Amino acid sequence: QLQLVESGGGLVQPGGSLRLSCAASGFTLDYYTLGWFRQAPGKEREGVSSISSNDGSTYYADSVKGRFTISRDNAKNTVYLQMNSLKPEDTGIYYCTAALSKVVIQAATGYDYWGQGTQVTVSS
Length: 124
Prior knowledge:
By secondary structure, this protein is mainly beta. The chain is 0% helix and 49% strand.
């Protein structure tokens, strides 16, 4: 069974950091473009970041550029999202995604697999 499982969410104060992890099981991530999306209460789902399978090219939403870093460890079949300088507006459920592709993908419709999500709350 193909699965993506996120971890690392939690409650953090503004200015703090969190690192999200997403482990895949049932398939190998080597040939998959990976992404992170988030959804805040009452808001539409937003693409946060993506990393390609072929050369590690990355995409970041303007709202997180310079603060978030996506990375992948194919040996561990895991993708990460390092989040620094967190703001209250970063609060939401964060989902990792995977698509059988070589290039970065920004649109949610481009992804084949989704995790269940992990809650990130930024609050004092």
